[in-house]
Amino acid sequence: MSVAFRRESDEEHLEPKFELPIPPGPNLVTARGLSLIGGKVAELEAAIAAADEPEPLKRELRYWHTRAATAELAPPPLPGVVGIGSRVTFTLAGRTRTLTVVGSDEADPAADRIGFAAPLAQALLGAEIGETLPFNGRDDAIEIVAVEEDR
């Protein structure tokens, strides 16, 4: 029989397990984000110690160790200027919204927390109260209503 038709084991045909993807760019975080990363590392380390089969958790732990090692605390935003850690109220398409700009790992759109690399956050960064900003091809799509530091 030809070697091409022989299968030594099912194991050699499994897809490789890749690492979790790291978002590109700097790992800027808020103080809250730094705390969340530390908590995730501690949680995973405890789960691995208690697990019968820890391998699936180890890959996730490597991701969070990398994020902890590369985390850079974002400088506090200037008063009245949108930055990482700002809660900003703005109008977009006739609707008023309030979002907090945060680091990538603490982003949670359902809780109105968007990562600084998101297109909307990129449009907002550096803006001041009363300023109108371009977004989605419109020159005056966003109007900044209020900016405060998230606590």
UniProtKB/TrEMBL annotation:
Annotated TM spans: none
All copies of domain Transcription elongation factor GreA/GreB C-terminal, residue ranges: 80-148
GO MF, one example: kinase activity
Superkingdom classification of source: Bacteria
InterPro entries: GreA/GreB_C_sf, Tscrpt_elong_fac_GreA/B_C, Tscrpt_elong_fac_GreA/B_fam
Keywords, ordered alphabetically: Kinase, Transferase
GO process terms (BP): DNA-templated transcription elongation; regulation of DNA-templated transcription elongation
Position of the signal peptide: none
Alphabetized Pfam families for the sequence: GreA_GreB
Name of the protein this chain belongs to: Nucleoside-diphosphate kinase
